[in-house]
Model the fold of this input.
Amino acid sequence: TKTKIDEACEGYRPVATRGSILYFVVANMGGVDPMYQYSLQYFIKLFNLCMEKSEVSDDLETRVATLIKVSTEEIYANVCRGLFEKDKKMFSFSIAVQIMRNSGAITEAEWAYFLTKGGMVDEASLPANPCSEWMKTDIWGALQHLENIDGFAGLSKSIADDSAAWNEWFMCNDPVSTPLPGGWVDKLSAFKQLLVLRTLREEKVVSAVTNFILTQIGKQFVESPPFDLKTSFADSSTTTPVIFVLSPGADPMSYLLALADDMGMRDRLRMISLGQGQGPIAQKMIEAARDAGEWVCLQNCHLAISWMPDLERLLEAQNTMKLHDDFRLWLTSMPSKAFPVSVLQNGIKLTDEPPKGLRANIKRTFEDMTEKQFTACSRTLPWQKMLFGLAFFHAVVQERRKFGPLGWNIPYEWNNSDLLTAIANLRMYIDEQENVPYQTLQYVLGDVNYGGRVTDYLDQRCVRSILIQYFNPSVLEDGHTYTKDGVYRPPPVGDLESFRAFVNDLPLTDSPEVFGLHNNAAITFDQKETRYLIDTIISVQPRTGGGAGGKSSDEIVAEVAQDIANKLPSLLTREGANEETFKEENGAMNSMGT
Done:
């Protein structure tokens, strides 16, 4: 019997290994932001729920494959909903990489190169650069480091022999989707191709990482899960609070009030904004709600740091109490190191930011929209065409912020309330006017609705210029496009589901053209994104999951220090110096000589 039990347990070892990998990736996220903390108990509870939700099968291989798939997707979705947009891609990439490191598909040497590009380059010891007219010395040096890794031998010779083809690839706008010259696309694995891009076109690493995640673990790990408060509420309990992690401009209260209406709890929702002297009032509110079965929302917890220990004790005491089944606690806070760790680790964390990327932003708009809102206007053609144009405009003005001063002189915090107000105005003007009042809409939406936040007159002019592209008579014509390449265009008239399907087919990555910018505008943004991704991953190294192993931080630092020391010139001594170097004149050395 013991032998059979051991054999059955051994059959499920891949599931346990995947769970271990996922846990260490999730645990490492706590080093990125103080709000990204999850306890082992919370993770085990989540993992067990995944096992219960997965489809049962008598075939062991099928059951194991199902458990691995469901646990990976569910844990990703549960953790991802509490991450800021800037960290979601890094989280997905970490999952993919750790899975492949555990399986041996990515070696330690390859991973180390991705993080450091091989370390410092000693220019004096480099072979002659045959492509100096288009390849910088530091890139040529990194290429020599890359050739020390298995599978890359002969790469620099290939580049030198076929310089024209490599130069064309090096200069192209989209090296991610352009195959590597010289047949290297067939010789290298997906991650090794990523290393070539890391070496030659570093600014495109984030785009390549998106493609890597897509091909290795699936599309659902590239797209942020939709903000679904109802699902999060279903996962909560009387002792598990829901924590809204705030960002500038975010206001989740509209979602909470809508959920309270749906659940019949609007009259039993108690809210208080924390601050000086509000702690004792909040405590009494929680104590009363426990017995009455009410919801309590404590807003801006980061403004009541001194009361946070009291909140922690209050919630710890609840674990041994009998609470009303309807009782729920909702907390909102900006990221803060003072927020109680025990509450963070066992709570359900949610962020409410505009999704990253044009497609994700528009998708969020139509996912949040109800059928009643979509069909609220009697004039279908202008309503649907201009509704999509408004959603597109909203996404464009938000996404332009990522280009820094090239996008806006001042970054403005447009949010969902601006969009909802604009939709209400659009419906009213289309319904009440015999002809679509384009100029009126351009003024009301561009100068008042969205322009009301704008303080720079050049930004105001830019808002108006962008809006005109989506609010003019030509948008109602068949075949109208927003961009010259025809990729972005309004969908044909249809129902809400057809609009959602149309948005799902939009490109995952955006070209600067769609924002009205030159392709070069993306260079600075891409470099910043790549630097953030790599620096963030390095900050949580070298802890690994699933037994993949790895060097300690001290060993890595020692290796880098030794590498730097080896490349330094020898010490300058009097014995080895020219006789003029240390010569003194009038009691002082010649500064030009030293």
Summary: The longest helix spans residues 60-80. The chain has 26 helices and seven strands. The CA atoms of residues 239 and 317 lie 10 Å apart. Residues 543-549 have pLDDT under 50 and may be disordered.
